[in-house]
């Protein structure tokens, strides 16, 4: 009762916004959770409601002026921290005094605020006092940091003004300011306010932290495992190829091989040095070796494993291990490391973050929900009935236009022709802007002038369009739509861009190239997809803001930690620190950044610096970047009911079709020719006409006739009926007959009644919707029925019932009480009705197929030559469909027999024996192709010179020949229901077989580049795709991937559009400007002639003489005026290629540094 009272009191005080009662209620709720104190503290910190931090807020704190001053003080404090570095102050020395004044003012403001809150809430009297509230403790910590920072400024000023006291100020004192950037947390808290019950926050933190903790433990287990394995397998790798007589403790750049290579002793399995060098163990420090790639102890091995798991620079460590140890050890270690750590654990993190975000989204759905609905009046329509039928008519279309705008002008701007014409102009303008090619000669300036005047014409046309829409819709009607606002901004920016002085500066070129974004509006499907990705903007925009704030905070913290380090140019100014931390997020070259920082750091601080950057990288790559994936997936997530409908529609397209495939429907174009059977007349009776063979099959089988002889009254002559003319000649010595009379009619009716009673007793009248496809009323049906019953084991009804329950569970049969529902609720789907529809479609397809089989003799005949029921086809079918059955049923109980190694049995029974054989032979053939190599140049590892490789080639082709021959004889080639070539997989199988057969017969001994023989060898590389067609589970994955082609195409279109925008911008901004001389000392093209000495790369280690102008090895190279090796922006093709490389996070820092 006390807990209930406390809870109700908490709810009541929340409504009244009383801070005292709220704190009491929270303490009553949190009291039983003292064991989870950390969760409680974090929950209080996340409850961002500044009003709860004050017990009795005074009028001064309530004033908006003081709140605005405090927000402004937070920004000033952050700015002062970002510019307070020795290198930044060196550009403008008076900046130091400005920083001191700003820090003094900010500290005084925070001190005044603290005094007021202490006077209002008390110091330590109760839970809401200054030193006991969580947020107030955080504010006190920030105030303490500001006071220490101000004291440090005073000490520095004292050393400057009074140097005769002998006091010295060291630049590393600025480390004390490193926590100050967390002032941004307080600023965001003052800007963003939301209320959420504290117990709900605790629940979210508890669940999400538990999941993240579990996957972190999973990650740390593999990290420790591979770190220990690295120490045991590799250890210290200090052997290098050096010149004889090298001092191992003082190695110079001239002693190493070019490039520097690790080695192993002779016979150890690694790389062996050439004869003029020797493999020696060098005595190098960790700073000289560079930390990365070391397995000396558990700590350095753990650091190497983490850096390698980020997939950045791990190949260099692999090469070092290959040079030092046998190759199989390094291959096994690094392949498994990349698989488990880089792929598996990373995707597990993404999955956990996605699930956690989905749960948080449910809790914060009210905060993210769009409460206001924007009404687009210009496109508001209603359905009205006119003389021509039902039409969508705009609501008050005439009233939208203001005075002075004519009806004709409004109809023009609304017309489809006008909109299509403007879209065509947008496309034409985009193509025109992207068509410029920089040729690095005198013609560039002339063509730029021509392009300028054409751009002026385009800008004038788009401005006219904007004016027509303004006059047509009126200003209020025009500015109401977001698209029109975007077009107006583009018009203003592009108009400023064509101003001659501004055109050359390229400041407003963005407005010119962003016109192509208007094309997204032309495709409703693409527009809807883009809206789904970005959503209303609150979630994705909030995440972008969170990432930027995190980046700013960490950049400022790192700036204060490393700005004083000599020989380190990564953190001298805030832009440099920001770019370095951003580079770590993108993971491109981040290992080089960390290694450079560790090399310049004091040896005692190396572990802490490594932990700092590894922790930052772990947080931003596995959590923050996973949040982006989670937000986009959440935006693309469909409603559950909509997802069900989409899945049912996709299933309906495949399983509910009532028509046959096109390759079988071709038989409907030919005239019907059913197979007829001539009935020989019986003596003393009238002649009989020909009848369909399918009709006679109900009474007599071609392989085994049944003899029934009995005498009717007054007639003791046996009668011979329905004799097949073809079979008659083969069985002339044996007389087989069947009589029809009163007794046989009775027997047929009795058989029907008996089977009906048996079904009713077995299934309890629940199969009246199940179609009975057998012909039990005929002699053949009766014989088949009795044969099945006779061949069954004891208690056959129990087995039937088990089979029926299995079918019923999977929705393959419909019980009697499962008629389609008429009173469905909103959003409810009648699954049983859909199942009945699917069964009806299947029966319809079977009926059509049976009709074609009856009316067309060549239907379902492999190669139009093999008979439907021929012995050869039956043998081939048994070979093709032979399969291991993993499930064994007890004949007595009807239950499944439990087996050991059930998964192994299921794996063996996954596909047929023939397919298993082809999977193994295909894998063997692929393995043999791995041993083909052009080295050595004598050609002993090429297939046409190696008989062992030819054996695998012959085995594959012969096996595939047998497989295809058997499958074609069993199922047909193309015009049969289960043909070998019935989908894309069959076409690919046939293509692989034909190309392999041609290459095996041809087997050219000389292969030229881009020749037919080379293409045949390339086509052999498609053999692994056969495994996709043979294994059903892998084939299903490929099919599901192909089903998402529409979404993949939309993403591709969006990506290409954005790449085109930025590539066009790059062509106009930096096109033709990246070319330079390969000699960095030459800046003009006229002087880029002759030869110069170019330094060559030797080693990643820091040794004496490295990068020294006198000692570092050099070679003579000619001077060339050219673009960078990997990229340029001279035309749209190269620009898009460079941006595509940037999107892969590879090489973007090289483009940045140019």
From TrEMBL:
It is found in: Membrane. Pfam families: Ion_trans. The chain crosses the membrane at residues 95-119, 140-163, 215-235, 325-345, 417-438, 450-471, 540-562, 609-633, 907-931, 954-975, 984-1003, 1048-1071. Residues 824-854 form a coiled coil. One of its GO terms (molecular function) is monoatomic cation channel activity. It comes from the Eukaryota. InterPro entries: Ion_trans_dom, NALCN, Volt_channel_dom_sf. It is a multi-pass membrane protein. One of its GO terms (cellular component) is plasma membrane. The keyword S-adenosyl-L-methionine does not apply. This is Ion transport domain-containing protein. The lineage of its organism: Eukaryota, Metazoa, Ecdysozoa, Nematoda, Chromadorea.
């Amino acid at each position: 009762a006390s807990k209930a009272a406390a809870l109700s009191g908490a709810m009541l005080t929340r409504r009244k916004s009383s801070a005292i009662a709220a704190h009491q209620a929270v303490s009553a709720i949190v009291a039983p959770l003292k064991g989870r104190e950390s969760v409680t503290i974090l929950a209080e910190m996340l409850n961002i409601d500044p009003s709860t931090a004050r017990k009795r807020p005074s009028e001064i704190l309530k004033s908006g002026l003081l709140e605005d001053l405090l927000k402004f003080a937070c920004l000033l404090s952050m700015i002062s921290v970002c510019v307070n570095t020795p290198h930044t102050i060196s550009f403008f020395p008076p900046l130091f005094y400005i920083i001191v004044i700003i820090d003094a003012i900010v500290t005084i403001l925070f001190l005044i605020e603290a005094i007021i809150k202490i006077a209002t809430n008390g110091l330590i009297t109760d839970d809401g006092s200054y030193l006991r509230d969580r947020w107030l403790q955080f504010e006190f910590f920030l105030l303490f940091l500001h006071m220490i920072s101000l004291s440090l400024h005073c000490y520095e000023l004292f050393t400057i003004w009074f140097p005769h006291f002998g006091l010295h100020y060291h630049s590393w004192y600025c480390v004390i300011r490193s926590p100050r950037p967390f002032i941004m947390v307080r600023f965001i808290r003052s800007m963003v306010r939301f209320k959420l019950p504290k117990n709900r926050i605790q629940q979210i933190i508890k669940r999400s932290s538990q999941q993240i903790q579990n996957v972190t433990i999973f990650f740390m287990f593999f990290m420790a495992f591979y770190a220990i394995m690295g120490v045991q397998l590799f250890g210290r790798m200090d052997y290098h190829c050096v010149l004889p007589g090298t001092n191992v403790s003082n190695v110079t750049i001239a002693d190493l091989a070019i490039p520097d290579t690790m080695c192993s002793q002779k016979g150890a399995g690694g790389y062996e040095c050439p004869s003029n060098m020797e493999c020696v163990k060098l005595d190098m420090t960790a700073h000289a070796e560079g930390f990365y790639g070391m397995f000396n102890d558990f700590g350095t091995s753990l650091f190497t494993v983490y850096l390698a798991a980020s997939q950045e620079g791990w190949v260099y460590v692999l090469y070092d291990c290959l040079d030092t140890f046998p190759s199989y050890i390094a291959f096994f270690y690094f392949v498994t490391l990349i698989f488990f750590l880089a792929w598996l654990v990373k995707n597990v993190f993404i999955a956990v973050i996605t699930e956690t975000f989905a749960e948080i989204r449910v809790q914060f759905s009210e905060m993210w929900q769009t409460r206001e609905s924007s009404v687009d009046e210009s496109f508001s329509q209603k359905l009205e009935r006119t003389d021509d039928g039902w039409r969508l008519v705009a609501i008050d279309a005439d009233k939208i236009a203001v005075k002075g705008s004519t009806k004709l002008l409004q109809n023009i701007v609304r017309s489809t022709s006008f909109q299509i014409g403007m879209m065509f102009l947008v496309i034409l303008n985009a193509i025109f802007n992207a068509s410029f090619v920089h040729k690095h000669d005198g013609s560039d300036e002339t063509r730029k002038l021509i392009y300028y005047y054409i751009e002026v014409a385009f800008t004038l046309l788009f401005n006219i369009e904007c004016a027509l829409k303004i006059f047509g819709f009126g200003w209020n009607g025009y500015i109401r739509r977001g698209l029109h606002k975007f077009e107006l901004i583009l018009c203003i920016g592009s108009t400023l861009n064509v101003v001659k002085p501004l055109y050359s500066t390229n400041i407003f070129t963005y407005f010119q190239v962003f016109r192509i974004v208007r094309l997204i509006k032309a495709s409703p499907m693409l527009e809807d997809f883009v809206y789904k990705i970005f959503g209303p903007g609150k979630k994705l925009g909030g995440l972008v803001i969170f990432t930027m704030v995190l980046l700013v905070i960490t950049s400022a913290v790192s700036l204060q930690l490393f700005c004083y380090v000599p020989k380190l140019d990564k953190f001298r100014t805030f832009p440099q620190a920001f770019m370095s931390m951003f580079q770590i997020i993108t993971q491109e070259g981040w290992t080089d950044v960390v290694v450079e920082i560790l090399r310049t750091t004091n040896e005692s601080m190396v572990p802490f610096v490594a932990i700092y950057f590894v922790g930052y990288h772990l947080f931003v790559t596995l959590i923050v970047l996973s949040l982006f994936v989670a937000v986009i997936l959440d935006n693309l997530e469909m409603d559950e009911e909509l997802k069900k409908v989409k899945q049912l529609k996709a299933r309906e397209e495949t399983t509910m079709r009532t028509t046959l495939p096109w390759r079988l429907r071709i038989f409907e174009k030919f005239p019907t020719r059913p197979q007829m059977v001539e009935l020989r007349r019986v003596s003393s009776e009238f002649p009989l006409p020909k009848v369909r063979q399918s009709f006679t099959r109900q009474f007599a089988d071609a392989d085994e006739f049944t003899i029934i002889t009995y005498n009717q009254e007054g007639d003791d002559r046996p009668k011979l009926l329905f004799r097949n003319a073809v079979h008659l000649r083969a069985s002339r010595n044996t007389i087989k007959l069947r009589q029809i009379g009163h007794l046989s009619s009775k027997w047929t009716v009795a058989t029907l009644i008996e089977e009906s009673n048996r079904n009713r007793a077995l299934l309890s009248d629940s199969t009246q919707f199940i179609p009975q496809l057998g012909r039990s009323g005929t002699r053949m049906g009766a014989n088949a029925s009795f044969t099945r019953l006779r061949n069954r084991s004891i208690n056959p009804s129990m087995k039937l019932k088990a089979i029926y329950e299995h079918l019923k569970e999977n929705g393959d049969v419909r019980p009697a009480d499962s008629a389609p529902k008429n009173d469905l609720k909103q959003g409810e789907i009648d699954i049983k009705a859909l199942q009945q529809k699917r069964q009806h479609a299947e029966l319809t397809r079977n009926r059509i197929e049976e009709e074609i089989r009856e009316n067309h003799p060549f239907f379902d005949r492999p190669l139009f030559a093999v008979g439907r029921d021929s012995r050869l086809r039956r043998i081939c079918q048994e070979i093709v469909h032979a399969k291991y059955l993993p499930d064994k049923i007890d004949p007595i109980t009807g239950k499944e027999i439990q087996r050991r190694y059930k998964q192994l049995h299921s794996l063996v029974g996954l596909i047929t024996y023939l397919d298993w054989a082809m999977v193994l032979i295909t894998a063997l053939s692929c393995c043999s192709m791995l041993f083909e190599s052009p080295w050595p140049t004598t050609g002993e590892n090429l297939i046409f010179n190696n008989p062992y490789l030819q054996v695998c080639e012959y085995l594959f082709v012969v096996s595939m020949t047998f497989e295809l021959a058997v499958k074609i004889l069993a199922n047909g080639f193309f015009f049969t229901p289960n043909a070998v070539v019935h989908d894309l997989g069959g076409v690919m199988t046939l293509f692989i077989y034909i190309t392999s057969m041609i290459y095996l017969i041809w087997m050219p001994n000389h292969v030229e580049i881009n020749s037919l023989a080379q293409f045949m060898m390339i086509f052999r590389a498609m053999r692994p795709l056969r495994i996709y067609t043979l294994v059903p589970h892998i084939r299903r994955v490929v099919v599901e991937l192909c089903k998402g082609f529409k979404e993949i195409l939309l993403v591709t279109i969006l990506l290409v559009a954005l790449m085109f925008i930025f590539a066009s911008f790059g062509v106009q901004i930096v096109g033709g400007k990246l070319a330079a001389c390969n000699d960095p000392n030459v800046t003009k093209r006229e002087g880029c002639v002759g030869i110069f000495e170019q330094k060559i790369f030797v080693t990643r280690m820091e040794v004496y003489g490295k990068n020294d102008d006198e000692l570092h090895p050099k070679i003579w190279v000619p001077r060339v005026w050219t673009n960078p090796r990997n990229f340029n922006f001279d035309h749209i093709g190269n620009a898009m290629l460079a941006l595509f490389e940037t999107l892969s996070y590879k090489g973007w820092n090289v483009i940045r540094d140019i």
